[in-house]
Amino acid sequence: MSLPNPKMLELDRLWKIYDTPKGPATIVKDFNLRMKEGEFATLIGHSGCGKSTVLMMVAGLSDITRGNMILAGREAVGPGPDRGIVFQSPCLLPWMTAFENVMLGVEQVYYTASKDERRQMVEYYLSVVGLADAMQKYPSELSQGMRQRVGIARAFALQPKMLLLDEPFGMLDSLTRYELQDVLLNLWRKNRITTLMVTHDVDEAIYLSDRVVMMTDGPEAEVGEILHIPFERPRVRKEIMEDPRYYELREHLITYLNERSHLRPSRGETPNAPLSLAAA
Amino acid sequence: MKFLQRFKLDSVLLPLAAILVCCLIWQMIAGKSVVSTKVDDWGDKVTVTKRLGISKDLPTPVETWNASKLYVLEPFAKRGELDQGILRFSWLSLKLVAQGYFLALVIGTPIGFFLGLSKRFTTAFDPVIQILRPVSPLAWLPLGMILFSGVQVMDANGRTTFGASDAAALFTIAICAMWPTVMNTAVGVRAVPQDYLNVAKVLKLSKSKTLWKVLVPATLPYMFTGFRLSLGIAWLVIVAVEMLTGRPGVGGFLWQQYNANSFAHIILCILAIGVIGYVLDRLMSVIEGRFKSV
Amino acid sequence: MIEIKNASKSYDGTQVLRDIDLSVKEGEFVAIVGYSGSGKSTLINLISGLVRPDSGTVTMNGEPIVEPGPERGLVFQNYSLLPWLTVRENIDLAVDEVFRSWTKEEREAHVTRHIEMVKLGPAAHKLPKELSGGMRQRVSVARTLAMNPKVLLMDEPLSALDALTRATLQDEIADIWLQNKTTVIWITNDPDEAILVADRVIPLLPTAPATLGKSIAVELERPRDRRAVNHDERFKALRAELITTLLDSKASRTSKVSMKLTLPDILPENVEDVNAFGRWSRRAPKRRNENKKEEVEVSV
Ligand SMILES: Nc1ncnc2c1ncn2[C@@H]1O[C@H](COP(=O)(O)OP(=O)(O)O)[C@@H](O)[C@H]1O
Ligand SMILES: Nc1ncnc2c1ncn2[C@@H]1O[C@H](COP(=O)(O)OP(=O)(O)O)[C@@H](O)[C@H]1O
Ligand SMILES: [Mg+2]
Ligand SMILES: [Mg+2]
Fold it and tell me: Cβ(B179)–Cβ(B111) under 8 Å?
C-alpha cells in the first residue's frame, strides 16, 4: 500500500439495457468513470436517471449489458465482499443483533483470525459509529439512524477495496443525516476506502466527496459533468459552511440539475466543471 | 385499570355463559327417561322406563356425566385393552400423532424448501402435489396397510409392538398432515426479501450458511404457520385412522362404544377430541408467536 | 396570540419537554426545528389542545387551551384524508361542519376558491389514492385553510415528500401565506426549510428533556428565491448558526466516555480463492505490518 493505485476502478463504456414488456430499454449508455485509490466520489442526478443501476453494476448485483469494469486491475465478476455496499435501508437481518449482523460478514472475511480478534473487530467498528451500548439490540429496537450506523459499521469492518453507497441517508431526516455524514467521514478518515456514493442531496455531495459526478437525465444516461471539490480534509462542517466557495459549488450543482442535466455532453472527453474554483 | 379487570372477567365469564347455553340446548334436544309405575294385567307393580324427546337416544348432559364418570375421574386407569381412562386413551393417540407429525415435518419442510427455491421443481411437482393434497385419510389408510403389510416388530415375549396397522397409521398421518407445511414453507421461501439474499450474495456466504443464517430464519414465521395447520390435520386424521384400525386410542374407543350403543361415551370422546385439539392449537400458536416476535 | 409559559410534559414518567416558553404574535410565521423523536409533535399537540401540559400554561388570546378547536387548524405529516372521498368531498366535509350557517352556494364557492388556491382545480374530483404525495398534502392544507383557522399548525407537513416536491410546496405555501397572513407554526426537521419559509426559527434542542433554544429572526425579503438566497450572506450565516446550534446541542448530550478499544491489525482474506479445504487449514491471518494491534480511543 505504498503508492495509491491511480486506476482503482475503471468503468469503460458501460451499458445497461433492461428487457421490458415494451421492448429493450437502454437505461445507461456509454458510462465512463475512472477512480483513484482512496478517492471519494458521488454520483448525483435526477431520480430515475440510473444512478442505482450504475452502482448495482459495480457491485455485481446487476449484469453489465455491455462494456468493461476493472477493479484494482482485475475484471470483477459477480458480487463479493471486496465491495462493501450500504443501501438506503440498511437491510440488516432482523433475527440477529447488531453485533451478530456485523459478525456475519467478519466471520466470513477474517476466517483465519482468532475468535477474539474477530470479536474485537466487531466491537471496535460498532463503537466507532456510536453504538457501544446498543450492540446486543435487534434491528427492530433501533431507530432508523442507528440501523444505518450498523450498516456503515458492517461495510467498513470488512475493509473492502471499494465502498458503494446508494443514498445511504435518503430515508433520514436532515438533522440525523448530518450526524451520520460525520460518522461516515470519521470512519473514512481512518481508512480511506475508495468510495462511490449515490445521492440526490447537493450539500451531502459537497461535504463528503472529492469529486461530484453529475449524470444526465435518463434514459440513456451518461456522465454529464464532473465537479472537483477543493476543500481540505479533514473537513469541518462549520468551516465549510462559512467558506464562500461552498455556495458557489452548491449553486453550480443546483444549476446543473435544474438547467443542464437534459443536455448530452459533447462526444469525447467528459467536461470538467468550467469553474476557476475547480483548480483552487 | 378497572376496565382491564372487567375485560379479564369478561373473557372468562362470556365463554362460560356460552357453554351453559350450549348445554341447555343439548338438554332440550336430548331424550328424557320417564319412569312410571303401573300395575300390569297380573296385578303386579312394574316400573316402565320410557324415553321422550326430540332425539330419543341422545343422553342428557347429566346422564352423560354419570355414564362417563368412571373414565374421567380415573383418567389413567387401565381395565382392558379397550377399557381405559380417557386421558390414557388420549395419551396413546397423542403418541401416535406425535410420531406421524414428526414424520410429516421432516418430509414436508425440505420439500417446501425445494419448491420455494427452484422454479423448475415447482413446475414439475405442483400438479402432483395438487392431486395428492385433497385425498382423504380414509383413502390413504388401506394403501398404507397394503404397503406395510410385512412390517412386524416383536418384543421379547413375542408380542407385536409395531405392526402393519401402526405403520399404516403413521404413513396416513404423515402424508395427510404434510401439505400445509409444504405449501407454507414454499410460500415463505419465495417471500424472503431480495435484500436478505443480497446480503448473503455480497458476503459470498456458503450454501449451508445461507440456508441456516438467512433462509431458515426468514422463513420461520411461515413454517410455523404451516406446522400449526399440520398439527390440526394430524389430530383430525388420528381419529379416522383409529376407527378403521381399531387401535386403542380415543378414536378406537369411540368406534367401539358406537358398536356397543353407548352414546354417552361417544359424546365424551367428542369432547375429549375437541379439547385436546384446542389445547394443541393454543400451544402451537404460543410457540409460533415466540418465533414471529424475533 | 399564542402563549406558552413554563410548560413541561412527561410520558410514563420520562419527561419529554421542559420549561417551554413561547409566544407567537398574530400574523407571524414561526418555524420550530428539531430532531425526530425530540418532542416536536408533543409541542404542537400542546398548542392544538390534543395534549395537556403537566405544568405551566398554554393560552390563546389569553384563554387557556383545553381542547382542539376549528380556530386552530392542524396539518399532519400523513395527510389524514378520507380515502373514499374525492378531493372536493374531503374539503366539503370540513367546511360543512364549520360554516353551517352559510348557504350552499357560499360554501361551494368557498371550497372552490381553496381548491384553486392550492392549484388542484383539475384534480378536484379525484380520490386521494389517485394523487401523488405532494398533491395529497395540498388537499390537506386546503382543507385546513378552508376552515378559516386563526392559527395554522403544521406538524412536519412535508417530511414524507421527496426533495423536489418539498421545495415546490414550500414555495407555494409561503406564497399562500403572503396572501392571507394567518399565524403559522410550522414544525420541521429540516433547517433549510425552516429558514426559507419562516419569519422566526426556534430550535428545539434535543437535551433530555427537550427545550426551546434561542429564537433566530429571519430578515430575508419575501418572496424568497431559494437560488438567490444562496448568495445572501445573511442566509448563509443563519443557516450555519442554526445547524451548528442543533448539532452541538446533540453532541453535548451524548456523554463523552473515552474507551480503549483494540483494533486487530488483520486484513481480509480473498473469499473468492478459498475452497472448503482452505477454510479448514489454519494459517495465520494476513496483517498490515509488524505491530499486531492498534489502540484507539473512541468517544461514545
Ligand atoms: N429491473 C428493471 N427492469 C426494467 N427497468 C428498470 C429495472 N430497474 C430499474 N429500471 C429503470 O431504470 C431506470 C433507472 O433506475 P434507477 O437506477 O433505480 O434510478 P435512480 O437510482 O437514479 O433513481 C428507471 O427508469 C427504472 O424504471
Ligand atoms: N402518547 C405517547 N405515549 C408515550 N410516549 C410518547 C407518546 N407520544 C410521544 N411519546 C414519546 O415522546 C417523545 C417525543 O415524541 P414526539 O413529540 O412525537 O417527537 P417528534 O414529533 O419530534 O418526532 C418520543 O420519545 C416518544 O416516544
Ligand atoms: Mg436509486
Ligand atoms: Mg412527530
Answer: no
